[in-house]
Amino acid sequence: MHIAVLMLALMxxxxxxWAEATKPLKLVVLGDSLSAGLGLPAQxxxxxxxxxxxxxxxxxxxxTNAGVSGDTSSGGxxxxxxxxxxGTDGVIVELGANDALRGIDPALTRTALTDxxxxxxxxxxxxxxxxxxxxxxxxxxYAARFNSIYPDLAKKFDVPLYPFFLEGVAADAKLNQAxxxxxxxxxxxxxxxxxxxxVEAFLGTITEHRR
Length: 211
Fold this sequence. Notes:
- By secondary structure, this protein is α/β, with parallel strands linked by helices.
- It has helices at residues 3-13, 33-36, 46-56, 73-78, 80-83, 97-102, 106-122, 139-147, 149-157, 185-210; strands spanning 25-31, 61-67, 90-94, 127-130, 161-162.
- Helix content is 49%, strand content 12%.
- Helix 7 (106-122) runs parallel beside helix 9.
- 36% of the residues are buried.
């Protein structure tokens, strides 16, 4: 094996220093059908595959799938307290796709996501946002108002952002189920691979603050 390839493989497999000798981090993925795993076996849902990918790198997590199919951002906010129990170390928020699909006023989505972040911060629970992009059928003005929500909130509240949850998967027929919206198991694998660096950095920050 070429030395550069070998070094890259070793770096990929290496466990982050912060992940060693720590108890598992309790994480909640607060989301909709994209994280709930609609149309997939439970083991192929995003939270489960993310947990396995982290464990492969030596990062112990106790992952809760709090994805509810059909949920809007307002729906996620309404069930926030029981979806995120006390003792949770971090929350990955994946909401907004249904808001965009239904053409909900972006102001309402912004308010709901703001409330979620503020309430979690008040409970001293770190938050990571997963961004969403509006479909083109509602026009450029709607898209501009909707798409700006996530970077605006990430900047305002100083929380990490993964810009587009479906990056590399959206609109690819081979990676989506028959509805053209929900990822296949292979699509979930791509999402997990793409989002891993952001999640690792998020977990590293949580662990540093726990010490």
